[in-house]
Amino acid sequence: MQGDMKTMRPIGRGAELGLLLIVALIGIIVGAFGGYMNGYMSSGPKITGPLHIYLATAFDPYTGLDKYFPANFTIPAGVDVLLTITNYDNGTNTVDPVYSTVQGTVGGTATVNGQVVTSVQADRVTHSFTIHSLNINVPIAAAQGQTPAVVSFTLHIDQSGTYRWDCMAPCDPDAMGTPGFMTGSMGVA
Ligand SMILES: [Cu+2]
């Protein structure tokens, strides 16, 4: 590095200004990152919830109904949030092809047991995580025997509010459309 500097010609006024600009830009970037990390580390005003949300879908023995645990939750606005849904139900509920494709996630993909997918075979779906108002749909693949299916995807929603999600797989007529079971609310704040 030192050797290279010696062979360079003296820096002109234009180059000096350019250097100043670069130093200023680095300052802005480092400052912004520091602010972001500060918000992340101390749960400051910018980020108001966890960046990784875990949900599960399973048969609820107390009610005898299929259920999302939890059905109501809140994610932070304006940042990437990873959602992981662990499905313990090995039953399949063939969905309309519209609900077998991944839509509205970051990158338009999800992972099923670690494999990146853009859809799940319609007759291998147990439930769906569908938010009509945001055009989000994630098919939840069926468990294999006693081995749950783990479905992960990233959401990035800038507009805060309360969004209703629905399961669009014909899983259980008593659970579908019933708040706390196969429909619920996702807060974005
Ligand atoms: Cu369902």
List keywords for this structure.
alpha+beta, 2 helices, binds copper (II) ion, 6-stranded mixed beta sheet, 11 strands, 2 domains, 34% strand, 3-stranded mixed beta sheet
Supply the CATH class of the largest domain: Mainly Beta
Mean of all residue-level pLDDT scores: 84
- The structural class is alpha+beta
The name of the CATH architecture of the largest domain is Sandwich
Q: Strand-and-helix sequence, N→C?
A: HHEEEEEEEEEEE
What is the CATH T-level topology of the largest domain? Immunoglobulin-like
CATH homologous superfamily name of the largest domain?
A: Cupredoxins -  blue copper proteins
What is the percent of helical residues?
A: 10-25%
Strand content: 25-35%
Largest sheet, spatial ordering of strands: 2-1-4-9-5-6
Blueprint of the fold:
Elements: H1 2-7, H2 13-42, E1 52-60, E2 65-69, E3 73-75, E4 80-87, E5 110-112, E6 115-117, E7 125-131, E8 136-141, E9 149-156, E10 161-166, E11 183-188
Parallel strand pairs: 1-4, 3-11
Antiparallel strand pairs: 1-2, 4-9, 5-6, 5-9, 7-8, 10-11
